[in-house]
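Researcher: Next entry in the queue.
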Amino acid sequence: SKIPNAENINEKAKATVERGYGPAYTLNSIGIVVDPSAGIEINSWEDLWKPELKNKIAIPDITTTNGPAIVDIAATKAGVDIKSDKGEAAFKELEALKPNVVKTYSKSSDLANMFSSGEIVAAVASDFAYDTIAKAKPG
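Model: Structure for this entry, 139 residues:
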């Protein structure tokens, strides 16, 4: 590497270098935020498709940082490598998820508002949104 401290990069960030790209400069995590007062248990990505979550969740818009991740999550639920069918199975799974989705959001502040108003009980979100949501809906 031409970067003097490249060997000190986080192991997960090195994956892009190994694939021939530059080192990752940021890492985000994505998860499911759940309102504990809703009494709904979510233990996996597949739980987002449960019928009891009809009109109760929010997912990121495809054009946002985590938009592609929700497509990959849907492909995993379908049991298909997203590359093998160009996302076809993933988009079928997202279509099946539609009844549960109140909103595909583009700003994490939207999530804070939806949680505080009780409009949603769960959302797929980045780690950077957690504090904003917690302040809007403590507990």
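Model: The helical segments are 14-18, 67-78, 88-97, 108-117, 130-136.
Researcher: Noted, moving on.
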